[in-house]
Structure formats: C-alpha cells, structure tokens
Amino acid sequence: MISDQVIPINIEEEMKSCYIDYAMSVIIGRAIPDARDGLKPVHRRTLYAMWEMGNTSDKPYKKSARIVGDVMGKFHPHGDSAIYDTLVKMAQPFSYRKMLVDGQGNFGSIDGDAAAAMRYTEARLTRVAEELLEDIDKETVNFVPNFDESLQEPEVLPARLPNLLINGSSGIAVGMATNMPPHNLREVCNAVCRIIDEPTASVDDLMQIMPGPDFPTGGVIMGTAGIRDAYLTGRGKCVVRGVAEIVEEGRNPQIIISEIPFQVNKARLIEHIANLVREKRVEGISDIRDESDRDGLRVVIDLKKGAMPQVILNFLYKHTALESTFGIINYTIVNKQPHVLNLKEIVSEFLKHRIDVVRRRTEFDLRKAEDRIHILRGLLIALDNIDAVIATIRGSQTTDEAKDGLISRFGLDEVQADAILKMQLRRLAALEHQKIVDERNTIQKEIERLNAILASEANILAEIRAELVDIAEQYGDDRRTTLGHATESIEREDLIEDKPMLVSLTSSNYIKRIDLDTYRMQRRGGRGVIGMATKENDGVETVFVANMHDYLLCFTNKGRAFWVKVYDIPESQRTGKGKALVNLLNLNDERVTTVIPVREFVPDKFLFFATRAGTVAKIPLDEFSRPRQSGINAITLREGDELVDVMLTDGDKELILTTKYGQSLRFHEEAVRSLHRNAMGVRGIKLKYDDTLQSASVVEKDHLLTITEKGYGKRTDFDEFRGHGRGTMGVRNILTDRRGGVVVSSTAVSDDAEIIVMSASGIVIRTKVSEISIQKRSTRGVRVMKLDDGDRVVGVAILHSDEVEEE
Question: Which residues form the active site (predicted)?
C-alpha cells in the first residue's frame, strides 16, 4: 500500500548529500588508487579475473574479448571499452614501467595509434602481475561481495612488490586528481628495505637510493628540487627533456631524437615541429623523418647548411613537448579515504599492508601444516598397529562403526580416523612408512619456522625484506631516465643565433639591424644599394657591426648611458626605416650619438670618451654593467658640449683623435687617468677656430682609415703620426676641401677587413679595405663611394676578418 504521507526535503541538502555520495563513489571506486597495492578497482578486478581463469604467464594467451567479458560479467559492471582500455594500457611498454599484462597483437603505439579490437588481441598475466596476486588464496586479504553479491572479489591484492611506486598512477576524480610517476623497481625495493632496516630514515636518505622517477620512455629529468618537494609533501613537479643528439658529421648537421618525455605522443610532437617550420617560427630545419623501428625510437631532423643546431634544439625544448613538466600529486586511498602522501608515508602504507599479508599468510600456512602433521601422526599410529587396525575395520559392519572403533581403541580423533580409513594399501609398505615419517619431520621444522616468524614483527619484516631482495634480483633493471642538472628556464637569448648584424642609427634616432648577407661585395667607387628608407630631414648617422648576443651601450649627446641587447632591436628589411629608439630606451630630450657593442663587462677594460669640444675621459667598463632603465650618467659635460665618440680600450693603448677639418693627435692613454662615472674629464686635443672633434680611434691593426663626407678615403701608416702631448693640436691627417668634404670617420683597420659605408639618404656600399689606397698625410684620398648630388657619407662600419670568415 502506498502511503499518502509527504516528507518535506531541503533540495539544497539533498543535492549536497547526493553529490557527496557520487563524489566519494568516483574517488574510492574508480579514479584514485589504493595505497596498498597501487591499483584502481578496474585494474584490480581485471588482474584477479585473469588469475581466476588461469590466464597466467605459463599458460597460453586468451582472447581479450573473453577476459573483458569475464571482468564485466563477474566484477566490473561498466562499459567493455573502459575495461579493454585498462587491459591495453597495462600491456603497453611505454605506459607502464613494469607491464602487468603480456599482450599479443596490436596494443597501440607511442604515436597514439589505438589498439586493435578486443576480438583480435590476446593477453595473459606477466610474472610481475603474478607477484601482486601471489598468496591470494591463503586468506591474506579480505574478500567482499561483487556488484550482485553472487561472487566474492578481493578488497585489495596481496602485492608482494610496491606497485604504486613502480608503475605510478593517474586519474581525475571529483575535486581532486592523482598523478604519480613510475620508478625503478630495484631502487624502490632497496628504499623499502632501507625503511625496514632504519625506520627513522628521512626522505633525503631515501632519495640517496631512489633519486627520482624512472619513466618507461627514458628522458632526462632536469634537476631534483621539484622531485624533493613531491617526496616531502606529496606535491611537486619534474621537468623532463627528451634525449637529442647533435650530429655534424655529414654535409649538413642533424638533430637525432632517441627518447621523448613520458606520455608524449611522438606523432603529434613531429607534427608540431613541422607546423613550426611551416609557420616560419623556427628556421634552419630542412626535413623531419621518423625512423623509429622495433629497435627503438629515432626521429631525425635535418638542418640547413649554416644553421645553429643548439639554438634550434633550445627552441624545440622551449616551444614543443620535447621538454615537458610532469606534475606530481600523490593522492591515494588510505582506510577508504583520500590522502596526499609523501614518499615515506607511501612506503609505510605498503609495509603495513605487507605485514598484515605475511602474518595472515603465515597463520594460514601454520594451520595447514598443523592439520597435516595431525593427520600424519594418526597414520603413523595406524601403521604401528596395523594388524589391530585392520582387524577393527574388518570386524565393523559400517564405516561409521569402523571409525568409532578406531577412535575408541587407539585414541584418535575423527579427522585422523577418516584419514586412516581413506589410506591406500600401498602405504603399508616399509618405504611408504618412512616417507610419512620424513614428511612429518619436514612439516615439524616448517611449523617451527612459521611460529618463529609470528613470534615478532621484526621477524615478519625480515621475511618481507627477503622477498623484496628476491624480487629486485628477479625483475630489477637499470634506470632508463637519467638525472641532469637543473637548468635555468630557456631564455629568449638561447633561441637566437649569435651571428653578426649590421646596426644603423639615423640622426632622428631610428635604429634597425640587418643581416650582413643583405649586402653583397662591390668594388671601390661603386654606387651601393639602398640600405634604409629615410624621412625628409633625417639621415643615417651611425653604422656598426655587432653580434646578436652583444650588449649595446648607448650613449647620448648629453653624456648618459643606456643598455640594450642587439636582438631586442627589431630586424628590418634592407629598405626599412627601423624603430624609434625612444620606444626601446627611456630617452628624455636627448639623442643617441654613440653605440658600443660589449660582450662582457670586465674590470680590466675601459671606455674612452671624447666630446665635441675635445675633452676626453677614461672610465672602467664594469661601472656600466648595471644601467637603470631610466639610464645612468656616464660623464659630465660642460655647457654647449656633447659626446661624439666612445672607444673600448684595455688601458695601455695609444689613441688618435681626429677633428672635422682633418687634424689628428696621437698620444698614449696613460696620459689620461682613470675616473669614475659622471666625471668631467680633461682636454684631449686643442681645437682652432670652428673645428670640432669628429672621431677617436685606438692605434692598432695595420692602418688608419679616414673617410670624408663626400665619399673619399685613404689608408695612412700610423708612423705618419708622431706622438704629441695630450692637449696639443696634432698634425694634418687628410685634405678637407670642398671636393672631399669634412671628416666623417677615422679609425684603425686591418688590411684584410671590409667596410660598410652608409650615406645620409640610406645608400650602403660594402667593399674591401685593401681596395682603398695607402697615402701620405695631407692628401685627399680616393673615391670610396659615388654619391648623388646633395648626399653625404654619415657612417662607416668595419667588418673585421674574423667576422667575415664567420659570415
């Protein structure tokens, strides 16, 4: 009869209660592994069903469909695809460190290929899986009813080995997830033995034995800091890199990938690299081939001639799954509740379980041994009184009467009497009698051994330790994942080839960099090519060569210094205008007049400053190693003066200062004492009339190359310039008349160098220094660059021989 009574229910409370029940069902019954055997219910049920049907490693394979049917019909009332996926994963050598299923057929690949249908594949347990199930028939674990209470299934497996650490586990529940990495079996067993020997051992002590995860796909773990966090707290991460080798033996270099990070799909990795090449996000790759076979993984990346393999490899680490982060969360089920465990707690939970299993197994074996020896004692009594026993049996009318007669006459119990009645006549032989005696003595010793194990927990632990040592010897192997040193995150600089670039700066402070290959070699006197499209009333003022990883010290006309990397300067087309420096530097009503490329800020180098009014100063280079974003003061300028040139010296050089009207003064830099930043400096050269200082150069290399604004130039021997005292007027260097114009640049060059000359209209010519003739002082020189009317030379960059060879 249906009741008409209505029971009011709070919908919020009902939803909360139902959702919590659902969440706990997912957590306990589906997604999170048990800390004792390291298995989720579906894995445990699959392995137990295979064990129950005799599908062991020493028996023939059975169809996967049959296994899935048994699991689903007896223990796991869910979809067959979920069960088969579980079976497949346990048979994949790239998913499990120690496979629990031995599969025959197509069980998928590291490329993400799906396994064949279950009707086509076959499977059986591996020997390692049998170690998880060993002794399950000895009442070592509790059994619970299956879903319809028609059968019994194990609550947990006996697990002779710490499977949770060896194979790891991953799963997403409700409100939590677990992601535990696999480890090396030998190391795990040794770590458990260490805890048995020394219960107070710390996590750091265990890490001496078990330094980190050991993934089935190999790879390199970069640093152990994140692993230590995971081992201490149960949460952490480890960065895993694939193993890649740079081969430069053939015509073009190659990158050969032989191992990839755990759980990375090889086919998708290759596809991702190909997309990066197609989108031109990475340059220098000409071909990608997958040459993997049954002997191992092998992905070959062919590089173009002149490519930088390490730069490309760093890019792949940065932008592809060739370097992956494995986040570790040690969520496990302990006493039917989810907990995050650290390494020592995981080992302790396994040991608690094994202590209980070994105790129950020993008690079971002891009962069986005592039952057997009890029967053997009865058989020996019967054999010692065989004639009387036979007479008693023959004189009885029924079996029960014979049993009662044996019990009453010989002091036997019912079990012993039944055994005597079932005894075969062949046991009456003398040798059979001795076998019973030997068996009794053997079982007696076994009983003594079992009682000794049960006498103390220390003896149980010793038994567990012996089993672990045996397992480590049988199934242990070497690490596949190596441990590397922690590296800083790959910075942008690691992804950029350190090659020479031509950097140009206009009078309006537009800057750009261009690959030197853009400019082909021309003979002296050529017209050049367009190097920069300039605005009206703007022209190129400075041009120089610097490597991509160089620091650029940018000095303004007001004597302030800024700091920028060459690769931070936008690369432009040959005719491009470039980018305004105000967008890169925090300039304040000032413009950059001099840029010095620097690789390292060492204290034994100096920056030699020269101003328009002829003032010079020498300041150690290391004082400029940390300029602020807002800039720093380099030198103090007098009113109306401005900075025109800065040189890098070693403190023991001779210098040549050259003025706009061609006067040059040579003196030793020892004549200028070292100052600190923001100093005012001293007089370097005495100027006359409206002359100004134009450039400064170190006396080195072969000749002094002087270029004028009308495109004329010459090389001059340094011996032509005798030394004068600092602060004097010097001697004439070059004829500066209306035809040649004033001096633009005067710098030391090697005869095998090249120069790049740029005009105010952006025309660039690149030519060899050796094509410019050597002339005496007070001459005009030869035409270096043919200019259009109204155009003028504004910058000269020297390309030294080593940079030419590198290019």
Answer: 120
